[in-house]
Amino acid sequence: MANRSFCSPNHSFKFGEVSFDLLTDFLVNLNKRNKDNLNHLSKCSGTFKDKRLVEYVFLIAKELRLDPLVGYHAIELLQRFMVKHLTDLLTTPTPRGAAADQPGSYEDVIFDKIEGKFPLIVFSCVQLASKLSLHSHIIDNNTAVQFLHSVGHSVSKQTLMKSELMVLKGLEFRLNAPNPLTYVEILLEVLGHNEPSSPVDRLYDLCHHVLQFVSLQRTAIYDTLLRSTVRSVSPSREQRETFVTVTEDCMLLGVGVIAVAVFILRFKKWEQVVEELSHITAISRKSISDFALVTLTHIVRSNFPVTST
Q1: Is 5 helix (H, G, I), strand (E, B) or coil?
Q2: Is the dihedral of CA 269, 210, 182, 240 positive or negative?
Q3: What secondary structure letter does DSSP report for 269?
Q4: What average pLDDT is seen over the chain?
Q5: How far apart are CA 77 and CA 309, in angstroms?
Q6: Helix 157-170 with 105-132: angle, nearest 10 deg
Q7: pLDDT higher for 115 or 132?
Q8: For residue 159, is pLDDT > 80?
Q9: Residues 191, 207: contact at Cβ < 8 Å?
Q10: How far apart are CA 218 and CA 50, in angstroms?
Q11: How confident is the model at residue 16 (pLDDT cuts 50, 70, 90)?
Q12: Where is the signal peptide (predicted)?
């Protein structure tokens, strides 16, 4: 296998250097965590993975020269924190004198308050993710304050620390959330072990681009997949709510991204790789193929938009 590091040439963790037993443990652990997550989904799952928000996080990570893994991790932290934070705020009894005779007024106050803090909350998630990465420099408070000032947010170090602590407490200090890029990396490693002829190093680079595309076009891609699955151009609310187990399935996303990359890079091996990915994850070949073909359709459309005549 290629002697390729997961995220940068300076990583100590490289493709082909992990023992099969350790690799198996990684995969079993990821699969268990993915299933646990799917069994405890909130109705708000995916709400904070909007294209503009994801792009904003990616741009912060790029501007600060952080490992791409930090951006994906930050998005997962943000999603978990915001869902819990808003749920806690909205289920707290309305304070006395909060104009209870005006329906919705208390909720409006909460959302207005969150709106003012939101940019700092997003940055705190990126900062926390950078501290958890073994392969990325940590964003210290001086750098953080300077960066936020450069984008129009003047905050003190104390305010920054309070925001970070709020996120930590909201997440109950549980920060080790698996992210899509981790799934792609581990699945690629397993694929390379099972299929030594697979060009893992080249696939990895391409998978980065595919995963970023899917993350930014998430709504459109999953909406197309949903309509294709239920065979309806107007899925019902119940169908959309049920489909959240698909949109939040990191294992499906991981194999789908790899399948797209293989289709682009080495089409002749596509069916063989899809078969192997299905064997590794127990996800059906049809599910992998459907995800990959929908994604490929959106990639083609984005590069060759259809114009009306």
Answers
A1: strand
A2: negative
A3: G
A4: 84
A5: 45
A6: 100
A7: 132
A8: yes
A9: no
A10: 8
A11: low
A12: none
Return phi, psi of residue 17, to 5°. -105, 5
Which is nearest to 258 in space by CA: 180, 193, 197, 196? Answer: 180
Residue closest to 247 by CA, chosen among 212, 208, 218: 218
H or E stretch at 75: helix 68-91
**Which tens digit of pLDDT belongs to each residue from 285-304?**
999 999 999 999 999 988 76
Residue range 44-93+106-171 forms a domain whose CATH class is mainly alpha
Q: Is there a contact between 130 and 137 (Cβ–Cβ < 8 Å)? A: yes
Q: Which amino acid is at 178?
A: P
Report how far apart the first and last C-alpha atoms of the chain are (Å, whole number): 50
Q: Within 13 Å, how many C-alpha atoms sit on residue 295's CB side?
A: 29
Instruction: Show the DSSP H helices in 231-269 as ranges.
Output: 237-242, 244-247, 250-265
Residue ranges of domains in the chain: 44-93+106-171, 180-303
In this structure, which amino acid lies at residue 218? R
